[in-house]
Amino acid sequence: xxxxxxxxxxxxxxxxxxxxxxxxxxxxxxxxxxxxxxxxxxxxxxxxxxxxxxxxxxxxxxxxxxxxxxxxxxxxxxxxxxxxxxxxxxxxxxxxxxxxxxxxxxxxxxxxxxxxxxxxxxxxxxxxxxxxxxxxxxxxxxxxxxxxxxxxxxxxxxxxxxxxxxxxxxxxxxxxxxxxxxxxxxxxxxxxxxxxxxxxxxxxxxx
Length: 207
Hints:
two-stranded antiparallel ribbon; globular; single chain; 3% strand
């Protein structure tokens, strides 16, 4: 029994390292441009890229906080509703997802294609956070929550990296300078893949 508890503690630690890495990666440099004014962190990249005419796919740069919010909300399905920490985590899930909330100016002056998907995904985080209180009462829901966490984390690990690699040649062409891949890209991917590994292991173990 004690060995099982120690194993669970180890995986829980790895899970929170992964979640922390997703958040930290969003505040590290993604686009290491040639000057300090063009060293863009993840939270800045989505807004800057829109001036290059990338289009709605730039929403993929807003995935990290939305993914993190969903992961936190799904994780609380495993926790009892009687704990105040559970409800704080649900509030944090929604709060973190709001990092992707579009500016008021964008909502009032830009086409809905530029911000509607983000609004919808933030709404999904809110719905999952609220419904997790009910879902946690069912054993099957707690088991499949791990599967959903693995799926969401995989999307969050792959799609932002793919989008960055897709727009990088365009940035190089415009700047006429070599542009690398900032540490934030890899930290976000590492955190997502670590969550995938932990959630997959817990899902298989729970089944």
